[in-house]
Amino acid sequence: MIIPIDRLLAESNLGREQALQVDRFIEMMLETNAHTNLTRITDPEAILTDHILDSLSILDTVRMNEGSSLCDVGCGAGFPGLILKIARPDLSVTLMDSTGKKLAFIDSVIDDLGLEGARTLRARAEEAGRTKLRESFDFVTARAVADMKVLAELCLPLVKVGGSFVAMKSAAAGEEIAKAKPMIGTLGGRVAHTEAAGKGLVVRVAKEKPTPRRFPREYKDIVK
Fold first, then answer.
1. What does the pLDDT read at residue 102?
2. How far apart are CA 77 and CA 95, in angstroms?
3. Which domains does the chain have, with CATH numbers?
4. Which residue in 66, 52, 61 sits closest to 18, CA to CA?
């Protein structure tokens, strides 16, 4: 085993079979990381704390109905999307990234673990938000270092009215979140709940009305 399974079982609601799936995922990640940059964190204890338990903290703070659809924007190596799928097999999970090598790795994990209802999508969020995927997901997650205003414009157009955008931010992001509220409102959202969880904060933005058609803009305009 790669990660401390007993600690994972003690600190999460995963069953043993799910914990073993997580361990296999991490084993595959470290094997691939030897030649493809997936993560800078390679210590098993740190992986458990910084990647796995941090991802699972979403489920401690956000209620997701049975069979909900979820899109993980900028999924990278699969955090939090793959961890959420293992923990909640009923979820329909789309893992979105613009890097083909990362998605190829995720596809191999999906196949190896037999994760039905999980798929990858190579796309940029600002482009996907102008396609048929617009306002099609119950939940959209992002675990990224981008400013909250940027993340909101990338993610909220993908969220159904009545759904939620869930951002994972650092513990020091309170001022950043406050400054983003006007833009979030313009995009049809409202910061409904912010809670300390995992490594930082889980921020749930409720989608209360449709996003105006002019959003999302081109990425260069979003970050200005």
1. 97
2. 10
3. 5-222 (3.40.50.150)
4. 52
